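User: Hello, can you help with two protein structures?

Assistant: Certainly.
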Amino acid sequence: MNITDTRVRSILIAGVLSLSSYSAQGNSFYSFGDSLTDNGISVREFGGAIGNAPGRYPGADGKFTNGSTWAEVLPGLSGLAFSDTSGYAIGGAKSGYTGFDDALVGAPTGFLTQIEKFSSDVVSGKKSLSKNDLIGIWIGTNDIFDDASLAALDTYVNNIETGIRTLQALGAHNFVLIGSDDVSLLADPSLAADPALEALSISAKTFNQKLLALNISNVNIYYFDVLGLLKNTVSDPGKYGFTHITSLDNCEANQCDTLSLAQQNTYLMKDSIHYTDRFERLIASYIANIINARNTLSVQSTMVGSAGIHFLQPLISRYDLQGIDIEARNQASPWTVFINGGVANGADHSQMPGPGLDPGKDTFKNNALSIGVDYRLSSEWTLGAAFNYSDIQSRQASKGGSNTALQMGQAAVMASFAAQGTFINMGLAYGAGQFDISRAGVFDNLAASPDANVLSAAVRAGQWFHFESVELAPVVGLDYWRSRISGYTEQGDSLLRMGVRGQQYEQLNASLGGQIGKRVNSHGVSVESLLRLTAERALTDSDRTLESYQRNAPNFNIKTPVNGANERPFGRLSAQVDIHLPSGWGLNLNAMGTFGNQQEDRSLIASFSYDL
């Protein structure tokens, strides 16, 4: 086995291992089409009639490939359930009700006949169909073989549209649609040009263009350009692990059936018109990548919002301690400069129901640095301003190996009012930055760098009550952030590039709780400590819809619903210690963590200050 073959095998195996970890979530996959998708139905249901027919090429298992079809491989890569009886495709089928082998099996075998049979199975309860199931369709090749005239192409495409709309009426929402291949690409280059093959080539390209022009609302159609993959394979066969690529130099013509599967898979073609197991697996890997690509999306808005709120909350928390001892506050210098740095961890628990979407959480880490200044305008009012740089990283190893990074700069203004034990602390911040998104393709990574901005606001109010040794205060608060992310198109493999529409997401949280504070003075050193416990709840609807599309199929808009985390109350525990030296230097430590409702926000901030 050569190095290239080993590399391709490793890529395909790694794809299976990383993507097959997806939970199926009860979703199923059903396939329709011709011999390029047939997973052995002729043996199961027709006693091998097609397999015994002269000129047909299936093996003893009724498949037209030497291993697995793309329809058998795809479900394992996208967390979908699939059994032998989930495949309705049959060799020789055309896009209408008939196929080449109707006389052999004694019944019509066309695509629309397959749809009717599946519909009957759903209505009778033999099969179930839900909105989150996935339907795979690859049909039209036999139609073009039978009649390659351009006038007939509209009929073929209309048949496919009829099938999709029929399934949509039954409740289907997600479809894989594979375009036509082009066998003329596989002709021996030493042979003279064949006008018939040229006509097939033109018809295949035109057929695909007409498929891409379909306009069916309220469905997600994942289009795969198999013709593009075939062209890439022919131009660089070694990259894809093939050494035999022409239709004449196929596996059966070289009597390769006694060879190992790995050796058979050095051939692109199993026979003159069907593909080997390796190419079928490549098709499945590409389609799975297209479907699963949306896993990178939901965490983006959460990361932007986290940057805003984790910048602003520590800033206004610095003022909480100032309300404990107004007299000490009045004696302090009016100007204070500070620098703080720290780390925050968070998680996005949003759920995106549908094929290929991992229900697992996305965790991220926020490293941030802020500098600022406070000015005590009066005994009651303090004003402040700060600047921040945040570097947020999310590595989604369980979701195909994607990495999402965000670098953001922010500015904030703050204000604090404290009088007779009453305190109100507030802040407003705005930031802008850029993502660096990288996700694994089938061979190479895809990348994108959309812009992002965030507007965040926070207010906290309470009333200190003095007891013998401590101060107690009930507190209420509101935290708000609104994130915006520009639309973008990935760079990389043209067969996989995803385009994403602009995103906007906002969240408003209310909090209610209490805090306890204490101040100790010794030898001119002031130590203030605070512990706060609040119950919080999101007041806004966290559900939203993300819109994406494939760059080579912009007419097929993919809408992915995002169900936000459960909006029942959760808890937040904060602790803060402030040490102030006679020299004017100060140290502030602020730790925070949430619990309940799957919230996993945690942060630790250290701040150094100096009174001018």
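That covers the first. Now for the second protein you mentioned:
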Amino acid sequence: MANGGFVKSEDLNWERAYKRVLKNSHSDFVPLRYDFWLLQQNPDVFIAKAKENLSQEHYNPAPLKIIEVPKPDLTTRPAAIAELDDRIIYQSLVDSIAEIVEPQIESCVYSHRLTADYNSEQMYRNYDETYGAFLNEQKIICKSEEYNFVVAADVASYYERIYHHRLVQLLDGMGCNIPLRNTLGHLLREWNNGDSHGIPQGFWASDYLGSIYLHQVDRYMLMRGYKYVRYVDDIIVFCNSYNEGRVVLLELGKQLRKLGVGLNAAKTKIYPVKNYLQKVKTATERVRNVFDEILEGEVRFNPYFDEFDERDIAELKNQINKVAVHKVFVETIKTHQVDETILKACLKLLSAAKDPFAINYVLDNLSVYPHLSSYFGNYLCKCPFEATTKERILLYLQSQENIYDWQTMWLIRYFSINGFCIRTRRLLRGVYEDRNNGDALRALAAFILGYKGDHTDQRLTKDSYDSENSSMVKRGIVCGLIPMPKAERNYFLKYHKHDSWIMKIACETVEKM
């Protein structure tokens, strides 16, 4: 598409987008922290590049890197990794869209609602105003005794099936201008190699688009007079009879199909209201009771959101009743079906306290809960170093049970903090040199190998730089050379500044260290 149909760069808030991308890095699926370090060190350069990209006659974003993230049912979801200049463009577009769209979103929608200050680096309201309110509203309606049944519906493979044309039509109807819609549609299609279905998962910008995509369904269900609440693709409808619940599912299915999506049969059910109330109370009150028991003092803390922000947990350190955490943790893991919400909450708190109480359980269950690898990996990194922990992580990484690049990434981070040794070096070299591994995994292995290894490791990655095609892996190599003797390192960097704009930034930033 020629630039004439694109939004003008002066119409976008680049500074806000940059800050939000940086803030969003704390909840990224993939722990490539050095990329965000480069972004933080060079905000003006990245923003200028994003503006330049958008002003080109034919703007083509770099292809997304996809890494498969396991779900609790052992299926996977495709997590996206975008080049940071493209990600800033994406965020700036959705920020502008959100300012127009947000006032039109129905009050029955609780997911990803913007903060009152639209210019804040924190894009969304906190937990108490969103997911907590979503659950609380369900409890209030259930207790009102106005309804006898609850339809709890879930949309199958939601993000992967969002249809770009329908999304653009929705934005048109909500007042977004043509250049804004065209630019977003072009970016999404290019990222999808021309396919018009699916938005990248793992970005705040995508969370917002995913939340508003069902706006027409919201309007339809409310127009039909249903008592209805929604959080992204979790749809809750209250009704008076089981048969009315069947009618709800029939109508809901028809409306969703108009948008190119459908119901997840395994997760869609009709409950008697008393049964559903107990289900919601279990999900909320148990967690709140747990926190009342194990935290001293009032703390804003969201156990439901899969974000592991160091700044969030740092303030908890002096407020944790360790004995109570241990008690709750033991009670949780002894149940027939482990409540993962409480398990994750306990691991966050134990991480904040650097308490190794749960370490054996975590190591014993690496293959049972691969979808919790970010929690497990962060917890292991926070615990005091033990040689046995290092050995067990190495054994698992070398076993046939370790099949996910994503899990491997979260576990090898341990060696960037603890336990670098000959066996660690051998493992990381194997991961880096295996071209069958994904670029993100190989990039992280190259970084850790250079950053924590010795001069031999740094020379190995440096000498293989020219054989690499992936800019992501090259950045891992360059950032891993920070501890290398300065003269040798900078001599190497001088000759690779001109490989690409992003490698120029990486080389010049590392040169200054």
